[in-house]
Amino acid sequence: MEFDDNAQLDTSQVEDTRGYGGGGMGLGGLVGWGGGGLGILGLIAYFVFTNLVGHHGVSGSPLSLDGVGSGQQVDSGQLASECRTGKDANTKPDCTVVALVNSVQGYWKDQFARSGRTYKVVPTRFFRGGVRTGCGGASSAAGPFYCPADQTVYIDLSFFKELQTKFGAQGGPFVEGYVLAHEYGHHVQNLLGTESRVRTRQGPTSDSVRLELQADCYAGVWANHATSTPTASGQPLIRNISQQDIASALDAASRIGDDFIQRNLGSGQVNSSQFTHGTSAQREKWFTTGIQTGDPARCDTFGATNLG
Ligand SMILES: [Zn+2]
């Protein structure tokens, strides 16, 4: 995967809080996180958080978004000066993420406009350790997530390393694109009102699983259009996506399925009654559906009788 060296980046879509506060200071509200938490569901905050790997490390007490100003100031100045063009995205990890966020939102902006709707551009916030959000406090152990209450994607970028070290996935910018596009898929669901359809929150055919698989499918839809979606500067940010990139993303999807996580990072037993995100095979299937069709309408996991 390669970015167009000359395309412009828009750092206004990313908020950097890593420079202040340090690893989650003052996050008294954090509960139930820490090593080995995978496989244990953060039931309390189930509904408000939709993240990539599971609902872990999330506290149940919603905090107001006054986190900004209490040790988590946004200072995106360094990003703004470092990440100007696709060339920066090709060479600097932070800028890669900026470019991916731009690309994903560029696609949805166009797609919404084509269907007579208005897409709302929302930020991705970088944090380290822990973060206060409109949905409560969360630690990095939760993995990246989207908070509907403040319409923000949150990510501790160390997750990308963890995908490789803990989950054994291959890394790479397109894998990061899959992760971010999945989270923005939840934002799309929020804008479309899909989240309100979630009534059953656990189990192999639960609404939660359908919501997550649809976010995977939406990620694939973005991938289908990524090289043809013009962003702010009028040209596509992404020049090419290789078969190897797609294979890497499918590999990542296969390592964050509920069955894989339960088997390898949890109790060792697969218990489908606790599924929240779908199996590895299902996640691969719906991501592939998105990539192959490029059509969000084909991501109707709520209407599907067979999830795969
Ligand atoms: Zn999710």
TrEMBL record:
Entry membrane topology: Single-pass membrane protein
Pfam families associated with the record: Zn_peptidase
Transmembrane segments: 30-49
GO cellular component, one term: membrane
KW Membrane (keyword) present: yes
Cell location: Membrane
Domain of life the protein comes from: Bacteria
Annotated signal sequence range: none
Coiled coil feature spans: none
Alphabetical list of InterPro entries matching this protein: Uncharacterised_pept_Zn_put
Keywords tagged on the record: Membrane, Transmembrane, Transmembrane helix
PANTHER family listed in its UniProt record: INNER MEMBRANE PROTEIN (PTHR30168:SF0), PUTATIVE MEMBRANE PROTEIN YPFJ (PTHR30168)
Protein name, per record: Membrane protein
Organism whose genome encodes this protein: Gandjariella thermophila
